Every structure is written in C-alpha cells, then in structure tokens.
Amino acid sequence: MLGPVILAASRSDKMRRFISAAPGTKQVVDRFIAGETVDQVVPIVEDAADKGLEVTLDVVGEDITTPAQAEAARDAYLELIERLKVLDLGPRAEMSVKLSMFGQALEGGHELALANVRPVVEAAAAIGTTVTLDAEDHTTLDSMFAIHEELRKDFPQTGCVIQSYLFRTEDDARRLAEAGSRVRIVKGAYKEPASVAYQDKAEIDKAYVRITRILMEGAGYPMIGSHDPRLIAIAQELGRQAGRKLDEYEFQMLYGIRSDEHVRLAAEGHRMRVYTAYGTDWYGYFMRRLAEKPANLLFFGRSILTKG
Q1: Are 138 and 166 within 8 A, CB to CB?
Q2: I need a surface site. Which of 20, 50, 146, 207 has the fewest CB within 10 A?
Q3: Are 133 and 97 in contact (CB under 8 A)?
Q4: Average pLDDT per run of 10 along the chain, which is 308 residues long?
Q5: Which one is catalytic: 58, 134, 172, 205?
Q6: Are 84 and 90 in contact (CB under 8 A)?
C-alpha cells in the first residue's frame, strides 16, 4: 500500500526538496508535465488538434499562502487563454482549475476563489471554450460545488469533477447529472480517511462503474477520466445501453500515459481529451501521479538508479 505513503509525502517540504534534487526526477517529470511555460505547451495543443484530440490544460500549483499568489494563478490562466485566442485554439482546449490555487484555503477563501476564478471562466467562454473545476480533498468539496453552481448561472457549460472513492459521490452524481451539465468522473488521488472514502481498489472500481451508469443515464455530458482498459470498455457499454452517440460523452486521459490509446479512441469516433499539466510548481501533481499507479513509481525508481 505505497499510495497513501506517497500521498503523505506530497505534503512534505523535506520530501519535496529531496525529490526535486534527485538526478532522475526531471526525466520522469517531463513525462507527466508538458512544460513550464505557455510557449512550451501551445505546440502540444496544436499537435493534439492535428491528431483529432482535444486537451484540458492545468497550470499546476496548489500551495497558495497569500492573496497575491492566488491572483498570480488567475493571471497565469488569463495569459493562457489569450494565447489560445490568438492561435484560434479555443475550441480544442478547455481549462481545468484547482480552486486551492485561487485562494480557497485562505481566510475568506470561498469568496476569494470565486472572485478569482470568475474572470477565467468568463475569458474562456469568450474564446469558445470552458473551465472544469477539479476535485481536491473531501474538505474542499462543498465549497467547490457551491462555486460550480454559482458559475453555472452565467456560464452553464462550466464543468466539475467527482471522485468514485468518496462515499458521497453517488448522491453528488445524481444531483449533477442534469441537462447541460459537464461532469468528469475519476477514481480520486488524495489521501482520504476510511470514514469518508473506500480504501479498497475493488470497491473504488465498483463505485466508479455505478457512478458512470448514473452519469450515462442522466441528461448531462459525462467525461470518463480513466486509463483502465476494463473501465473504458464498461463505460462504452454503458453509453450504448443509455443510447448515447459517441459525441455525447468523452474520455479523458493524462498527458504522457497511454498515448497510443488516445489516438485509438479518437480514431474510433470518440471524443478524446488529454489532461495536460504545465508550470513550475509541479511537485504535488507529480506525486499524485506516482501514487495512482505502481508502474509510475517503478519508472521513477529506475530513472533515479540509472541517473545516479
């Protein structure tokens, strides 16, 4: 059970310094992080479009401690949107945001996060795209869902994320699966207590299937976030059973993972979106990718050994 240990390390400044300095870290980080700047990520969006793929862009960074940092996060997204506008890439790229980056954990954080994220959502809509609010640990979700509901009053295309490992999520899915909604289902990648979340992988997978069925049978637009071939096949079958056309839901996978599968699903006629993270504050995002799959950790370990 290395996952919980890695997730705990994602909050450790000591581990952050150690891993950042490890000789093989850059090789592995480059697998999951598309670059550090807008200039580096734009060609990736263009390449994805050429392959029939779409993207969702995440400017990484979560440990915001001042309002000024939250405003800087807002401005980073506004810069990204301006570049997408100039290159006419808006319809191919949406944005994913973590409200922690926009000041959610600060004093008055709910109002601060809403005030900072609203201009991003407005600017995204102006270039023909939208924003999805990422789910973080369970203590932040009531605030995230309230902000999501508020934003949808003016920008109904605003999406949100739900996590199958949380006990509450089936009820959340029923509430969210309404006409016009956009909901991404993922397993979840935070260290959560047994009082609120399934701890067993098999139970998380079963919940994922139940929630996917709810979304497919609902009136909204499901976004299936998974690299698991079995869950992808089940989602396809549930879509067929619900009478959905291939463009009435989409699959989402991480940049750098199963890239051939991205192209295969798009070639079959599915909408396929690549979750593409970039930026300098990559540590928390990177550690959750290691925790999600043992193969990622093994890859990291081999890189350190071969570079050391």
Answers
A1: yes
A2: 50
A3: yes
A4: 49 54 58 84 91 94 87 96 91 94 96 98 97 97 98 98 98 97 94 96 97 98 96 98 98 92 96 92 64 53 44
A5: 134
A6: yes
Tell me, yes or no, if 134 is annotated catalytic: yes
Token output for 240? 């067929």
User: CATH second-level architecture of 39-277?
Assistant: Alpha-Beta Barrel (3.20)
Contacts of 82 (CB under 8 A, 6+ apart): 123
pTM: 0.86
Q: Compute the distance between CA of residue 67 and CA of residue 79 in angstroms, rounded to an integer.
A: 18
CA-to-CA separations, 162 to 176, 184, 188, in angstroms, rounded: 10, 6, 8
All CATH 3.20.20.220 domain ranges of the chain, comma separated, are: 39-277
State the catalytic residue, choosing from 74, 184, 273, 289.
184
Return the ∠ at Cα 70 (arms to 126 and 33), rounded to 5°: 75
